[in-house]
Write a structure and sequence with these properties.
- 2 copies of one chain form a homodimer.
- By secondary structure, chain A is of the alpha+beta class.
- Chain A has 2 domains: 4-115 and 207-379, Peroxisomal Thiolase, Chain A, domain 1, CATH 3.40.47.10; 413-505, Beta Barrel (OB fold (Dihydrolipoamide Acetyltransferase, E2P)).
- Chain A has 15 helices and 16 strands.
- At the A-B interface, helix 3, strand 3, helix 4, strand 8 and helix 10 of A face helix 3, strand 3, helix 4, strand 8 and helix 10 of B.
Chain lengths: 506, 506
Amino acid sequence: MEVFVGGVGMVPFGRHPEVSLVSLLIEAAKRTIEDDGGLEVDCVVVGAMNPEEFCGQGNISAAVVNNLGLSGVPSLRVETASSSGGSVLEVAHWAVASGGFKRVLAVAGEKMTHLPTPLVTKILAEVIEPYERNAGASMVALAAMVTQAYAHEAHISIKRLESVLCKIAVKNHRYGARNPYAQFQKEITEEQYFNSRQVSFPLRLYDCSPITDGAAAMILTSETKNVKLTGIGHGTDTLAVRHRVNLNSFAAARVAAKKAYAMANRDPSDIRFAEVHDAFTCFEVIGAEDLGLLEERKGWKSVERGETELEGRIPINISGGLKSRGHPVGGSGLAQAVEIVWQIRGKVAPERQVKEASIGMLHSIGGLANNNVIAIFEDAQTPPHGFGWAPTYERRIEINRDPKDPEEIKGREGVVDACTVLSVPPEGFPSPLVLGLISTSEGHRVLARAPTGAHFKVGEKVFLEKEENRYVFMKAHPVERLLYKIEKRKENLNAKVKGLLSRWRT
Amino acid sequence: MEVFVGGVGMVPFGRHPEVSLVSLLIEAAKRTIEDDGGLEVDCVVVGAMNPEEFCGQGNISAAVVNNLGLSGVPSLRVETASSSGGSVLEVAHWAVASGGFKRVLAVAGEKMTHLPTPLVTKILAEVIEPYERNAGASMVALAAMVTQAYAHEAHISIKRLESVLCKIAVKNHRYGARNPYAQFQKEITEEQYFNSRQVSFPLRLYDCSPITDGAAAMILTSETKNVKLTGIGHGTDTLAVRHRVNLNSFAAARVAAKKAYAMANRDPSDIRFAEVHDAFTCFEVIGAEDLGLLEERKGWKSVERGETELEGRIPINISGGLKSRGHPVGGSGLAQAVEIVWQIRGKVAPERQVKEASIGMLHSIGGLANNNVIAIFEDAQTPPHGFGWAPTYERRIEINRDPKDPEEIKGREGVVDACTVLSVPPEGFPSPLVLGLISTSEGHRVLARAPTGAHFKVGEKVFLEKEENRYVFMKAHPVERLLYKIEKRKENLNAKVKGLLSRWRT
């Protein structure tokens, strides 16, 4: 069954201190129902990542349908972490395509700005694989390691990649400044970007999307409308980043994109513009490569050439992206979808209207890219693909890493696959915290910590040790190892002396 | 498209101190995939009410698909509070019926026993409408008031209703003792029931389902199998209990049941047995009436006559129900579904096998009955309904109560619609806490608190007062009001004296 877009709507993103999450969702929903001509919806699908911990609100789908005055109508919540806004579309699509419903309201959002940043970071970190979380990895630390791995695989220096990331940040702020729904209504300069503080090397504050309150909504319907949802795909990946074959791309997005392309009978050359999940600037390049919109490992060159600008070959994040429009985690996916529909309808301000906005692609990342949703929206008048695009729907992804962390390390040598220096580590960790994904000589990959604040390069050989439940890596020079051993001996001795003293005292 | 049941499976319910929620879900899923012949699933739908707060686990659908070794396969979580296990079935049904998937794994569960009871109660209370929660209402208090309202509407004394509830508790424990998957493997006597402590009058400890760890799973498929999911419906109701027209029945279940009957082309006389959401014993009678399986307001008579026993006209909760099998909140709905499929397949122990188990009905309640899911499973060989059952699918429910709480109370007189004495109130409230749903003379209904531990009868006239943000009710005798006024004066005077003293001291 064909699925069309009825109405769309969203609330301006930013700080809404006086308003509850439910009120934000209701406002987005009301605007959407109005946009659809006020017709009655027969099902409500709500997306939110963690309303319980952000807002103390349980059973949110019942609260939404109640506050819309639609008690009786079925309503449920869908959650896939930060792609929840994409997943509501998927479930709403199923509901319509099943023939069970005529008009399904998808509404998604999050309210986060009322909480202190460390608490928000802690709640967001609950989606990280427990071992990696306990080793000190936060979302930005993992994203920083992915960024380093990308630079290595793309044969580009960190310095040059930084200038690419800067271009993305500046671009997204430029378009955000033209979008009345964006959290940041201001442009930034290259200087401001490079002056912003390092959060997790090589990512700066201006590489990260902000903490945001916001909500968006869309009605999917079986009735013919001028915009169609032609393809939607969803893919997952290992929870642990260290278990992935490739660190520089996201398999979950590739699986999802393949399905979306096959369903829509489209290929990357058909896509005119895209909304890509730039929670961190580097994800915009990686995401566009995963979708096939930019050339594999050469996406950074396209950014340098301005191909992703409004006037470029494939405009990306002309909304301002998550970076500038803001990132209410459970709501972003649906906000991207609303933006795409507005662009296709030609309803955005002329200074940011994509010229040939006939087919747009949505790319939403859940967690650290282990729950991704890709969708294709089209002007219903667009002619179908000229030739038969062969659907190659791969469901499973390749995992050739041993998912078990090694009990012992034999060779005591490893290679840095990715690394970061985290300036603001989670509670209980020293600052700066140096984390690395290290491949062992036996073929495992572990998440390890360096004892000093040293910087490491991807591909660098290191010494690897195991202490109780954690792995430690250090520079491969024998002196480093000696110093580390002396340090450990001193610690052990201190512990013994303390033990003896306390026994003697009692 | 017709939707069939591929495989089913569950883990024994109870306390699983050494095991994580993800492990419980994986175990249930593995048993289910095995039951289905080990075929590959192409989508995973996970149900859990609050894994973030119960277990600190975010993005659980990605964790499940990862630990099943199915990375790549789409996976999302569905949540509707305590009916999440029912809602995963609904979404899995949409996924199959949409034609997008061949074999969808629905898996749902919860892990709760590792937390102290007051914390569990607090987390569960997040689904209660904020005003009612802040007034001291817990789930059991609201259920107790519904129980009182039922007794009043059914013209039955509380004493007689207690003996009906006792019969339900004894019955469900009797069958739980025959179910190897049940948390409580023991029968209880009437004496034990009446000796169990009052939790919220008239509900005793043995009227309440326990805190449980557990998980269940089911594969829905488009391939022909011997059991079919023929109907599924979902309905919502006002979040606030006080806004409902009727307190003695659940409109959300009625809306959902109508849809399920219409979809399956069945009527209540076709149903051979049911799994009804007996989170509190009284919900079993109310639920069976809402489904049309027992006569309106006379369901209690059917219980007295033994009609809901294994050998009765319409066996209910032969699994032991939530009461005895246990209630891992997000998992119960799916466990009920698994039980129904086992019964239809004739796969349970002879001492609890329903004789003509050709058509079974699932009834799952989310929150305080504001998010309910009803489903019908059938032996695929069962002949269709002989006559045309006219589908009467009502989507909306009647709300004629003003949803705004009155700013002032004019008449200062009210009638008790429902009332309870809560022995273990939420933190910060005095024990016992007397709560009442009181209709005002202007037609509002408010949730009010009585200042003393007095018992009230439904239908009793009371005095109603408003103090700042809360309502207070008391016996209608003028002396009561006088005493209350004196008490308030004393309190005010005390406050004033304290204020003066503290000012004088500084």
